[in-house]
Amino acid sequence: MKKYKIFVINPGSTSTKLALYENATCLLSTNVFHDSSVLIKFPKINDQLMYRMMVIQKFIEDNHVDLTGVDAVVGRGGSCYAVESGIYEVSDQLLQDTREAKGGLYHVSMLGVQLARMVADEYGGRVFMMDPPIVDELCDEARLTGVSGIYRKAVSHALNEKACAKHHARVMHQDYDQVNYIVCHIDGGISITAHRHGRMIDGNDAGGGEGPFTPTRMGSMAVTDMLLYFKDKSPEDIRKLCYEAGGLSSYFHTSDADVIHRMVDEGDEKATLVWQAMIYQIVKYIGAMSTALKGQVDAILLTGGLLRFDDITNTIRKDCGWIAPVYAYPGEFEQDAMAQGALRVLRGEEQLKEYTGKPVWSGFDWD
């Protein structure tokens, strides 16, 4: 059996994750943390490109990695027009639309395909994107807002949530296309999605500031409060609170959850209340997704880096266990999912999706 070399690049709001695979076996990986106090110095996300590229170059140099002849470079995608779930070859059009955030998502995942192309330009290999945050499977009722012509976007940690759901279905000898799950990605960003028979029919707009506040994101606020707070601030100030300067970072001037949770362990009153409020908001959104599934929930799945703190899982089990059994998968499935997706394409086991340069959903007939 031919051995394929696959390099995976996964930029997140607080980290850059890199991994080198031979077929489905991970040979080497790293997870480099970036504090919000550093990232906030870059005026725009695209300005972080060379900073993140230096992280990749250091990983290659420190580990004496030879990427010559790499078969595929997979970048976490985002910010292009909304797409169907699947794996895509990165075209010039996809790259341009991502760089220009044509899909309306302003999130660091947009650097993934740009970095992947830069690596492939130097070492070779095909460039892929898989299940980016703008995978759109919303039901029609979930699209509308209370303002005519303004529609909610599908923005979630689709890559990890889809992979986690499919993994759990295999473990439980279930068919992902026949069950209903609530899947929660809990890390620098937090997304909580309702999966009905293999489709993510609803969820918070995790890239637009909707949902629980997180280590870096402000979460949902009343419009009247936002108008008052932002009356003397720029659109860029608003964007920063939505993706890197809000949430725990706003309270503590750091998004380092280890530092903040240490304060909780030491009995700091403010840190304890803020941390518990974050979990409280997660629980509320799980409840909302249970109603989106009409109470027919087979399991609640938790995944993401913040599950290294047991109090998060324990609180969700206590408060949401009456809805459905709660299962925890700490960490993430993202790197494995991207590598395995590329491997299936390289072996001819899965067809590539074509990026059309148009959103998978563009409005109702009456628009």
TrEMBL record:
Coiled coil: none annotated. The keyword Cytoplasm applies. GO terms for biological process: acetate metabolic process. It comes from Catenisphaera adipataccumulans. It comes from the Bacteria. It is an enzyme of class 2 (transferase). It catalyses: butanoate + ATP = butanoyl phosphate + ADP. This is Probable butyrate kinase. It is found in: Cytoplasm. One of its GO terms (cellular component) is cytoplasm. GO terms for molecular function: acetate kinase activity; ATP binding; butyrate kinase activity. Its EC number is 2.7.2.7. Pfam families: Acetate_kinase (PF00871). Keywords: ATP-binding, Cytoplasm, Kinase, Nucleotide-binding, Transferase. The keyword Cytoplasm applies. Belongs to the acetokinase family.
